[in-house]
């Protein structure tokens, strides 16, 4: 989408005016969120598995928040730091003294915002040993194995290459460098082209799509212990069970960088991370009876805006959409600016679109100037009227809160998905094709696939939160 | 001792947004050179078990039963010492006429003579319940689960059971034994025997003259006994989000395996292929995968031939997206050839069906297409078969005229052999 006021950059993002060069983005080497489980062949990142009461931070690009990285400074092996604000912590601390984040067991450079992981998984750009795109003409790959050599290890057995797929994080990579989860030839995409984050009940997928040169979408996901530590005894430090179980609040933020303004992709990444970390801090410090998550969403959007780098003099300011969802045990609150959306798919069949696009066409439709059904196809259907940008005076997202009354799913997405499944019913039908026990990651992957198969003309980002009533 | 090799033919390049990947995988099993590495335990060929099912329904009277007895004797003579066997007489019930004891006999000079003597009194009379014959054969095979199980079924008529009854039986027999089916005379139904043969991983053929039966039986049994490794499966892995559109064997004959998938893991399915001897089998698969951007390359499928979990051969099917139209529109010659061969098989079957339903126009169109495809494949034998059913006016465009005086046996022969294919030119 293009902001309505961005002079000279009008038209939709399908015009093909993309960011020319984006070194910063390419350099943002993907990192896994937390210690990766080497034995996990399913490929999903499972940062949420190792503890019941941590804060799981997972950003699409894995790059540290600018502010956080600056605070962290050079890596010190023995110093334990808060994964969220990078403040120093004692080994015995369960919570960060600075921001209230629940700390996990890792120390020093093992924090989720580091660019390497203990699993040593970040050898992804090398593609060493990968089969090159061989010359034109039919390919022929085969093998010969004689029946008298049944010894394991001989023949076309899976090699333990120690590499992981940069897209789906699967550890199953064959001898030729193909991922045995998603099929990707390691090295044939750039980091950030396809990113998956799995926090269990909360997961997201961001994909460059088939046409755009860069993935300028961003997402950031957090799980926060809930009720917050602050809501319990001031002495704190109890085990999860003492607080009534490992309940968590889920936070998802999706930002779609405006492709017509250079730098919007990285700016979207900064915005998404800042918003998610702001919400996490707010929730970690809040009492359950604290007022108004919508207020927290406003503050988070403002934090996101301030995190976006200012443009060089004379350059247009980067811009991105904003859509955030917070699910606690009792409520679902969303806030948005622009045309990224949130949907609620209730298990009881209740289907809701929770956001109303901030686009010229949608506003015209709401004003009765054009038919409602033209809102997604008319001129201006992708020209956003509200957005996040360092040049904006403030960021004030519209918000909606609905009570959590039963199980279901929240789908947060950029227009790269909803261009191909706009109606909530249509979206629900796609999800219904998955088996009953599908995880949040399964849903996010499936919806991304739907958009790719339909043409993938834009970046696609889908975050999914499984709602379990009373459990955040 | 068999050595397996595999080869893939495909054009891996897809246009932007392309999802359908086609590939032909050729698997060849040859015996190892003399002096090859020391055989493992598995090199000792497992025992073979052979059951001969002879239709003895009323319609088999005259020449047919005489030749069937002769064929059974020829088959018995083909059984080398040590092979387990039995002879089943089929009517509206099934009766084991040899051996007289439970289970299977072990072939030796003595048992072969005794079996041939037992075949002598076979008389035609009664009905045709092929399902019953198959069930008895299954029971006999299950007495020796360690063997490689093969059966041959000879009939001259149509099964007197409902399709559902037969399907139920086939489901029970699948995986227990393989079965080649032979029809003699013109009263049997090609499609019915083909259904049995397809499910039981065998072939179907017309024996035109009763006196041809003996030679045919001998050849079928020799081929069956030449198989040294059983329960071989194709194990197909496809990436997450992919759908297998089809998997079909395309050489030596066309068999659609798509529906035979057995889940073997999260992204993996097994397709039974039965026992292998010195074989060359070719498979055509089509996978619909999640597209990648231009420049991305993916593994679209990995095809392994396995016994249990032991891989015998492996082939990789690739996909790479390109904006070079010349690359993405190129069609691999081998894929094209076998696509044509599969189309040819269905054109013949559907063309003959239309002809029998009195729809001459559709029949001429489809059989004309068959003539064109057979011409393209330089398949002279097929053209000769077609020529007996249609007059081929222009083999290049496929213009044909239906003949009015067609020998029923010629039509059945064309139908029965419709799935036979010719190899792709090198």
What does it look like?
The complex is a heterodimer of chains A (472) and B (426). By secondary structure, chain A is an alpha+beta fold. Chain A has a single domain (121-467), classed as PPM-type phosphatase domain (Phosphatase 2c, domain 1, 4-Layer Sandwich), CATH 3.60.40. Chain A has 8 helices and 17 strands. A 6-stranded antiparallel β-sheet of chain A has the order 2-8-9-10-11-15, covered by helices on one side. A 6-stranded antiparallel β-sheet of chain A has the order 6-7-17-16-12-13. In chain A, α3 (264-285) packs antiparallel against α4. With 426 residues, chain B is an alpha+beta fold. Chain B has helices at 63-78, 109-119, 130-142, 163-173, 190-199, 213-225, 325-328, 333-356, 360-376, 380-387, 408-416, and strands at 2-9, 13-14, 20-31, 48-55, 84-90, 94-98, 105-106, 148-155, 178-184, 204-207, 229-237, 243-251, 255-256, 262-265, 268-276, 279-288, 297-307, 310-321, 390-394, 399-402. The longest helix of chain B is centred in the C-terminal third of the chain and has 24 residues, at 333-356. Chain B is globular and about 75 Å long. Chains A and B meet through β5 and α8 of A and β1, β17 and β18 of B. β5 (144-146) of chain A pairs antiparallel with β1 (2-9) of chain B, so a sheet runs across the interface.
Concise structural overview:
Chain A has helices at residues 23-27, 66-72, 264-285, 293-307, 360-366, 415-418, 424-432, 440-453; strands at 2-3, 56-59, 80-81, 88-89, 144-146, 194-198, 202-207, 217-225, 248-256, 322-327, 331-337, 341-346, 351-353, 383-384, 398-403, 408-413, 460-467. With 472 residues, chain A is of the alpha+beta class. In chain B, strands 4, 5, 6, 7, 8, 9 and 10 form a 7-stranded mixed beta sheet that branches.
